[in-house]
Amino acid sequence: MRTLTLSIDGSDVTVPEGATLLEACKKAHVDTPTFCWAENLTPVNVCRICVVEVEGARTLAPACSRKAEAGMKVLTDSERVRHSRKVVLELLGSSVDMSLAKDFAPLRQRYGADPKRLAGETVAQPVKIDNDQFVRDYSKCMLCYKCVEACGTDAQNTFAIAVAGRGFEASIATEHQASLGDSACVFCGNCVGVCPTGALMFKTEFDLREAGKWDESRQTVTDTICPYCGVGCTLTLRVQDNAIVRVTSPSDSSVTGGHLCVKGRFGLGFVGGRKP
Amino acid sequence: MDLHPINALATDAERAAIDTVLGPPLADTTIPAAEAKARRTFLLPALLGLQTRIGHVSEGGLGYACRRLGVPPAEAFGVASFYALIALGERPAAFAHVCDDIACKAAGADQLCAELEQTQGKPAHLHHRADAPKNLKHQATWAKSPCLGLCEQAPAALVTVARASPVEQSFGHATPQRIAAALKGETVERPTLHLGSHGPRKLLARQGCLDLDAYRAAGGYQALRRALELGPEAVIREVTDARLVGRGGAAFPTGRKWEAVSKAAAHPHYMVCNADESEPGTFKDRVLLENDPFSVIEGMTVAAFATGSTKGYLYLRGEYPLAAQRLERAIGEARAKGLLGTNILSHRFDFDLELRRGGGAYICGEETSLFASIEGYRGEPRSKPPFPVQSGLFQHPTAINNVETLVAALDIVRDGAKAYGTGTKLFCVSGKVRQPGVYEVPLGITLDQLLQLAGGTEQPIKAILMGGAAGTFIGPEQTGMTLSLEGAKQAGTTLGSGVVFVIDETVELTPLLRRIAAFFRDESCGQCVPCRVGTVRQEELLHRLTRGGADRPRELALLKELGQAMRDASICGLGQTASSAIESATRFI
Fold first, then answer.
1. Which of chain A's residues have a Cβ under 8 Å away from the Cβ of B528?
2. Tell me, what's the pLDDT at A227?
3. Contact in structure between B468 and B515 (CB atoms under 8 Å)
4. Which of the two ends of chain A, N or C, has the fewest CB atoms closer than 10 A to its terminal CB?
5. Which chain B residues are closer than 8 Å to A76 by Cβ?
6. Which parts of chain B have pLDDT scores under 50?
7. What is the DSSP letter of B588?
8. What phi and psi, each to the nearest 5 degrees, are found at residue B352?
9. Domain ranges in chain B?
């Protein structure tokens, strides 16, 4: 394997040719925040929280997708980087409900971001509930494109959803706002699996939260194998009060790559004899 | 591909509209994935076929386009909802887009819009929301529009009448009466175009040559003959030696671009002409495209020869119907006379080009967005590198040049770099000058001289917007600046796409700034956070600032902080320059 050496925050790092700056940062033990990046999806570099400064470049570069080059000098904590990351957090926090995005609060602290400074129009809208499997609360959608990628060529190849509209009015949509049941959706739930903000949520979880009964301290997380077909997908079951409330699969699983089908994801309602 | 179809059926008229664009349908079988990939590029033409002939894209119409092309309906909807000229709900067949952008606003567009409200009723709000309910019916017959590129004859309008043979016309000196006549399908006269120059005309030398004989009589196709004699390397050398830089605004050396494409190992190579002129205040390319279409075609042919491209695309903004008609005709004539196609001018050189029309999206002037749009995807830009010379249209090496750049290359190739000297450049002078128009001047004269060419101003100048909405405002004390890349840099501004928009004491600056902020908000593609949300916050901050009573130092500091992040962290030039004009103008408000 051919390698190349670059400098990250003054230290030399050697990475394989073709590696991204994010991978190089990881190797240099530099913690780089990401929202729209995931190891099992093609990088889209839209959230811009991972931007870094490349010496000699006019603008900052997205670490998640910019390829490392030999001799590159990269700064990950310069004034410009900190400023852009802070403003990105403020723009997201002031326009989108980021309350369930697990990395958001610690990052706000790390960069001293205060979304209230930039308070203004938001993407708040009613929750879309049109099926028994999952709900779509686009007030929490930061438009990271992950669900579209998982529904498309990165996993499911179903193409039920796409980004529609433009600018601040852009959103994730089916054609002409068809309900998911009338769309191409096969309810694999891979979009739910990759959503970083809780905009897409299991109906079981949503109902518990609405009723004020969601309580992570009473939950257990157990890995098992899907009982349906012979593929043997790894399932991660989140259980509260002896009921399965969320099913995921580890994104580093060699069998699933984090993705499941409708049966493994939503077909375990028979456990405990509940109606599905 | 196994696609989930839309159940709603297309009407016969909708099928006919799409079949006119795509040709008659073959047997109704499932389209193999590889075939669908190749057909995807016809998605926007098919959608525009519906828009221009039916007047909107219905569920059934979209479904039929998807079946013909093998495109998933959700993706096709994402594409359709991206473009401002495409209506997703039913609306009257005759529709007017009335420009209220900077130049038109300074010429009384707000008054015009108020009068139109009296006669035509309230305008539609062409927001780009994806959540418009199904089967929505609009009553409105008009909407406000961003710059239509007719700034020298402001205020302007674009009127479309959807029918089997569509009527599309754009015109200046718009009045409620002229718009009403156009909505009835009547032809509305355009005012006479004003052209001027300082010294001999080169770029504007062939204005009005609409057929091949006239074009040849004016010296047309001498450059291509010369190029074929010289060979590709020598053509590139001349262009490099002449130091021609891109005239779209980014000023990248054209010779270097052509050389990189010619040497790229992957084939085929593509030649793309960026005629998506949408920068507010810019109309120079329109003048070339409308009145000298063969120069653009010859320029593309020369560029294709130099870069080893056999296929070209001319991407024309959707709001230029007259240019589209004249280019279609010119391309047809060039093809019939053997100037496009195989063995051009009896040389072993093949090249043909396709005219593609935009759907109303400023962002599609950004090169990678333009490629995505031609490919049939949403016009979203992507990060660079890789640059288009390595991976451009259809992921192949691509030379993409602005209209004026390609026309400028003709003189260089025909006469040689030495004779070309420093060359001339087109400026779009609009606003409060006595004679707005397109002016061809040698680089190096002063802004004052250009303003004098345009007849000067009647009132003292308040400010001048240089380079368009993505440029900067300068004060009256800076009119001594030299019009060159270095001169602009020294003056802390940009020549950009050649916009010189002048306002005097009779024009209020605040409404113009608000329009610029609204423009960027409306035109952001929505992909990256700094631009998608940043342009909204910038508009809000500007409103707070100009309303008065706000904590001015705090608001100004926030505006600056926001601008810095948008400049540093946005994906493309739109977000990176969206704060430029507004920040430069805060000293005037």
1. 45-48
2. 96
3. no
4. N
5. none
6. none
7. G
8. -140, 160
9. 12-80, 96-183, 197-420, 425-503, 509-588
